[in-house]
Amino acid sequence: MKQQKPTESELEILGILWEKGASTVREVHEKLAETKDAGYTTTLKLMQIMYEKGLLTRDASSKTHIYAAAVSQQETQQQLLSKMIDTVFGGSASQLVLQALGHHKSSDKELDQIRQYLNDIEKQQR
User: Fold this and answer.
1) What is a single Pfam family found in this protein's UniProt entry (predicted)?
2) For the chain, counts of helices (H) and of strands (E)
3) I need a surface site. Which of 7, 34, 57, 60 has the fewest CB within 10 A?
4) Per the confidence metrics, is the pTM higher than 0.85?
């Protein structure tokens, strides 16, 4: 089965579950409510839809259902990034990187990691 692409709201929920691990709807809703005005029933319905789409798993063995991400953070990031590179940057990963570095203040540590990554890529291509 091809993985469904999560919507922006679904990504927010996945982000919470990737960070916290398996959680109840209430726990996810409380975390969401810290940054946005979202009703509990809206969060519940969205998580039920995400379960039906295969984005979440659900443990219904107790009265309170426990949800967990059914998709990995890394796979989701790769999928969304590939789509963005293809659609927004005409398939050019270098344009994405140049745009990101030109409009984002990177720490020295981040720049060192980028340099190391580029060095590793160069070694692999030789």
Assistant:
1) Penicillinase_R
2) 6, 2
3) 34
4) no
Report DSSP letters for 45-69, one per residue: HHHHHHHHHTSEEEE-SSSS-EEEE
CB of 49 within 8 A of CB of 69?
no
Chain segment 31-46, per-residue pLDDT in tens: 999 998 889 999 999 9
The residues near 50 (Cβ < 8 Å, ≥ 6 apart) are 6, 10, 13, 14, 56, 67
Question: pLDDT tens-digit profile of 76-89?
Answer: 988 888 888 999 88
The domain spans of the chain are: 8-69, 89-125
Phi and psi torsions of 120, nearest 5°: -65, -40
8-69 belongs to which CATH class? mainly alpha
Q: Could you give the 3-state DSSP secondary structure of residue 23? A: strand
